[in-house]
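Journal club side-thread
Mid-discussion, someone asked how the predicted structure for our own chain would compare to the paper's figures. Pasting it here so we can look after the session.
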Amino acid sequence: MVRQRNQMVECNRDLVLDKVKKCFPGCKEEEIMAFLDLYGEQPYERGRERVQIAILKLSDGDLDQLLVNVEVAKRDYRDVLAYAEYPEEMSNDNWKMSENEEIKRIRVRDRKQYIDWLLG
């Protein structure tokens, strides 16, 4: 479940399928899902739907990038989650900085863009 203030979005199979349709409109859903389902086969591959949604967001409709992101997630799922859910923070290396008001504002912007993408 992804939360932003009063908004909650449940990461479930239905949301994954919905995002597949939106991200890959010209492709067969079954084909995309077969690639996505490579993540979550192992017991240590956690948060299957949340990670699959992050993979879709980072892939931006590019099948080659989808495959790359599945492999990245299989190595360390936190990488795809961080870059999908906190793109501004990750691209600015703010994680290296001590907590301040600007970092808080960046995190709020990152969460808003992610929730907007999820609901869009």
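Post-session note: DSSP finds seven helices and two strands in the chain.
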